[in-house]
Specification:
118 residues; alpha+beta; five-stranded mixed β-sheet; two-stranded antiparallel ribbon
């Protein structure tokens, strides 16, 4: 599915993969976020994704012209998970809404792991 905006000048169509990559990039900029996580359902193994594959840690659905975003993250050891998650939601919501012009309906943050950062 694709995000679509109509205005007086025409139609703008944005693919979900583009939205996921942008949301993932906004997420890893947040303090306390080590990176995005990929979860193997078969093995139950969590992997830290490299910058090139950041999109795989983000799920984007579009319903009623609103974005619903699910994020799988790994946080740094010693930080408040609630504070990191709240900061992430605020940052991603603001940046995605500014980037697309679409409203974000909900952002769900799943913390998949904790890493010690040197």
């Amino acid at each position: 599915m694709r995000g679509q905006l109509d205005n007086e000048m025409g139609k703008i169509v944005v693919d979900e993969d583009v939205l996921a990559k942008y949301a993932g990039s906004a997420a890893v900029e947040c303090f306390g976020v080590v990176g995005m996580a990929s979860v193997s359902m078969k093995d139950g193994i969590v992997q830290l994704l490299k910058r090139d594959n950041i999109r795989h840690g983000v799920n984007v659905k579009i319903q009623d012209n609103k974005l619903f975003i699910g994020m799988h993250i790994i946080v740094a050891y010693g930080v408040s998970i609630m504070t990191v998650a709240e900061n992430l939601v605020d940052n991603v919501k603001y940046k995605v809404e500014e980037f697309t012009g679409m409203k974000v309906g909900k952002i769900i943050v799943c913390v998949e792991g904790v890493r010690v950062v040197n």
